[in-house]
UniProtKB/TrEMBL annotation:
Keywords: Disulfide bond, EGF-like domain, Repeat, Signal. SUPFAM superfamilies: Growth factor receptor domain. Coiled coil: none annotated. This is Multiple epidermal growth factor-like domains protein 6. GO terms for molecular function: calcium ion binding. Disulfide bonds join C234-C243, C277-C286. Residues 209-244, 252-287 form the EGF-like domain. Gene3D superfamilies: Laminin, Tie2 ligand-binding domain superfamily. It comes from Notothenia coriiceps (black rockcod).
């Protein structure tokens, strides 16, 4: 009896691959495609829509596959799925005039003490105006003091920023002092002066706050202003001076003070802490692998393996039992 190859004529009606069996042609598809209901036609499998893609940030589907991409401030990991933070400070592409601090997905510029950040968020402006020319400073150093009056204090600016010589003194001058030409004021200053060093404390005015007094309540992004209008109180899942940064990976909740407990590469929602599991695992803490016969994101995709076979929990490839082989484990070694 002559055996007729059921795949010989028009590929058995299969769009892609055909394997001859005793029951007729067995169709299969290239990677990125799946069989339609007629079990012969191959249609594109939208991994982005189905959740089968491994992309960390963005996913773009195309016929036969998909492509991952990342948010600004990140670059695609060599595995083609994950996204790695770009350290703009290390790459010297930030444009910060003074100091640069890298954060997840972006960076921030900061100024040295005595300066504040300009509106371009990169340049630094002196809080005390430009320093006098060196020649003028040498000429006036012993002859004239630059004195700033505050309640009960006299401040004499010295060349180093934010270091002053201070003398306790009332801001009010009596008529007698005026008649004496201010000699009494100078005498008190010389007799009771001391050093006042402002190395880390900055007092912001006019409702401003922050390291360089450059932000105010109107800048609070995902939060509200405090009762004293001196800081932003962030919503759960947000942090930063103006509440514009999401909790870093591994933290969540108010002030990002709670630690995620997700396992097996799972990440947690920055607000609620609920675990988001990668393909192939499930459970409240992503602690369980997909049950037999299922794979992919949320373990929702069913394996296409006959004979109650099971598949790889990530990619869905059939894992054959001893004695079976083939793409669908449908061939027996001892036939």
């Amino acid at each position: 009896m002559e055996i007729v190859n059921s795949c010989e004529k028009i590929n058995g009606g299969c769009s892609h691959h055909c394997e001859h069996t005793t029951n007729g042609p067995l169709c299969s598809c290239n990677h990125g495609y799946q069989l339609a209901l007629d079990r012969k036609t191959c249609v594109d499998s939208d991994e982005c829509l189905s959740g089968g893609a491994c992309c960390r940030h963005f996913c773009r589907n195309y016929p036969g596959g998909y492509e991952c991409s990342c948010r600004a401030g990140h670059r695609l990991n060599p595995d083609g799925c994950g996204c790695d933070d770009v350290d703009e400070c290390l790459a010297e592409t930030s444009g910060c005039e003074h100091d640069c601090v890298n954060t997840l997905g972006t960076y921030e510029c900061f100024c040295e003490l005595g300066f504040r950040l300009d509106q371009d968020q990169h340049s630094c402006i002196s809080l005390y105006g430009e320093m006098e020319d060196e020649e003028a400073e040498e000429e006036d150093e012993d002859e004239q003091l630059e004195v700033h009056r505050l309640p009960d204090l006299l401040f004499r600016k010295v060349p180093q920023l934010l270091q002053y010589t201070a003398a306790l003194h009332s801001r009010y001058v009596s008529d007698e002092d005026d008649r004496d030409g201010g000699d009494r004021e100078v005498e008190i200053q010389r007799g009771r002066r001391g050093e006042l060093r402002l190395s880390s404390s900055i007092v912001c005015l006019d409702g401003s706050f922050g390291d360089d007094c450059s932000v105010s309540c109107e800048d609070c992004d995902h939060g509200v202003c405090s009762e004293n209008r001196d800081r932003c109180e962030c919503e759960a899942g947000w942090t930063g001076i103006i509440c514009n940064k999401m909790c870093s990976q591994g933290t969540y909740g108010p002030a990002c003070n709670s630690l995620c407990r997700c396992q097996n590469g799972g990440s947690c929602d920055p607000v609620t802490g609920k675990c988001v599991c990668p393909p192939g695992v499930q459970g409240l803490l992503c602690e369980d692998g997909c049950p037999r016969g299922h794979f992919g994101m949320h373990c929702r995709r069913k394996c296409n393996c006959p004979n109650n076979g099971h598949c790889h929990r990530l990619y869905g490839g059939c894992l054959c039992s001893p004695g079976l082989y083939g793409r669908l484990c449908h061939l027996c070694e001892y036939q």
